[in-house]
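REQUEST FORM: STRUCTURE PREDICTION
Request ID: SP-0412
Submitted by: Lab K.M.
Chain count: 1
Length (residues): 120
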Amino acid sequence: MKKSKAVDQKLKTGKNKISDLKFDEKGLIPAVIQDCKNGDVLMVAYMNKESLKITLKEKRTCFYSRSRKMLWRKGETSGHTQKVKSIYYDCDKDTLLVKVQQIGAACHTGEWSCFYRKMF
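STATUS: Completed
RESULT:
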């Protein structure tokens, strides 16, 4: 991705804040998780403000489970973790792109990526 000098400067000065993001009515924002080395899309999950703060602090992905209604750190039971290398947000400020170093499988099925089934 090519960034402008203004964007580079803004990132360096730390002016991008969680409060800049647009969370939905349930307080969630989708996060696309991508392998930092090969660009594979590994999974899509949701974060709330608390899980994003934990992710930023620990440099390891933490998500909000919509079905269990609780926070979960990727790999807490499987050992398949994600080390966060960078986080971007889109132009509408309502979706995150989290680039990670994947350790083990990303998918709960044991597949490298949750996107292993081809439709077309």
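NOTES: The first helix runs from residue 5 to 13.
Reviewed by: T.R.
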